[in-house]
Structure formats: structure tokens, C-alpha cells
Amino acid sequence: MIARLTGEVVQLGATSAVLDVGGVGMLVHCGPNTTANLRLGQPATLATSLVVRDDSLTLYGFATTEERELFELLLTASGVGPKLAQASLAVLSPDDLRSAIATENLVALTAVPGIGRKGAQRIVIELKDKINSVGLADRPAAPAPSRPPAWRDQVSQGLQGLGWSARDADAACDNVEPLVAENPDLGVAEIMRAALKSLAKK
């Protein structure tokens, strides 16, 4: 299993990145909170999970090993695929996700696009006894976020990559624009989280 990659970021999208690792370009699918902290031409280290299917080998990347462990645990729940697991970690922080499952907070879980009430109940039933053992030890510090000039495009593309419509993504960007104007130093990851919260209130 490929558990970690370190290399130069040679290509960067809203939900993916290519790292040059020893001359080999490795495509890694990442949540928008992770890609927001990557920079073209700069070295990066990602915790990774290799998802094997009959017709594909797909790498998913995360800022921390805790996020990767939660992603892999979510995949063990019935009806949860990689895209839904990534969306869960984009909408909820690791601590919030762990708390939502442990306390059976279905409202928090259904804020994730693609998770309905029945799906949230299934996740709670299947993972409640396992969730608190994941990622508690040796948490690495997340890199400090910074806001690139094109934050709106990154946030909009990231939201659409998680399943929201272009209209909803634009509306969410409009909702958080005053927040960005008030605090220009906000990172894209923080702006993304605020945008997701605004959509969850709809």
C-alpha cells in the first residue's frame, strides 16, 4: 500500500494534484481543503490511501494521517464510496466527524451532500464502536492555510467537485464574500468550510 507521497507539486486542480516523485508523476485525488494548501512548484507531503477496483488503482491524498484513517474507516460502511468519504471530510473536520458519529448526530452527517437520513443512520450503526479509536494519537499539525487571489474559483470548483450545482456554489461564494472582505487573511480551507456551512443551512 502507498501510505505517503513526498514530491514537487507539478499540477494542481480543485480536487486533484500531480506530485513528481522521483521523476514519476503521481495523480492524487484530494479534497478541496487539502488542495487549498498545496502550491505549484513547491514540495508537499500527503498521507495517501490506494483504492483498488477491478478496473482502476486510484490514490487519494490527505493533509494528515488522521484524515486518511477516517477516510478508510468510512469506506467500510455500506454504501460509502471514495467520493462520499472525501465529501464527509470536506464538510466536517476530523473531530466534528468523529463526534457526529459517536453522538449519533444525524443532522451533522446529513449536511454532507449525498448522505441522507438513512445513510447517516447506517454510518452511525456500523462505525460508532470504531470511530473513537481512529486518529487520536500523534496528530501532525496541518499546514498554515493561505488565501490565493483566485479563492472564489477554487471554492466554487471544490464545491462542484463535491456534488453541489454551479448555482449553489456561486451562492455559497456570495454568502462568504463579506467574511473574506472582513478578514482578507482567511485561507481557502477556512473559506471553503464557511461556504459549506452556508449551504448546510439551506
How is the CATH topology of the largest domain named? Answer: DNA polymerase, domain 1
Question: Which shape, going by the Cα principal axes?
Answer: globular
CATH class of the largest domain: Mainly Alpha
Q: Could you say which structural class the secondary elements and strand pairing correspond to?
A: alpha+beta
Largest sheet: 5 strands, mixed, barrel
Strand arrangement in the largest pleated sheet = 1-2-3-5-4
Question: Which architecture name of the largest domain does CATH use?
Answer: Orthogonal Bundle
Please tell me how large the radius of gyration is.
16 Å
Low-confidence stretches: 136-149
Strand content: 15-25%
How many helical elements? 9
Order of helical and strand elements: EEEHEEHHHHHHHH
Distance between the termini: 40 Å
Number of domains: 3
List how many beta strands DSSP finds: 5
What is the CATH homology-level superfamily of the largest domain? 5' to 3' exonuclease, C-terminal subdomain
Helix proportion of residues, in percent? 40-55%
Mean pLDDT: 86
Subcellular location: Cytoplasm
Keywords: ATP-binding, Cytoplasm, DNA damage, DNA recombination, DNA repair, DNA-binding, Helicase, Hydrolase, Nucleotide-binding
Pfam family, one: RuvA_C
Organism: Microlunatus parietis
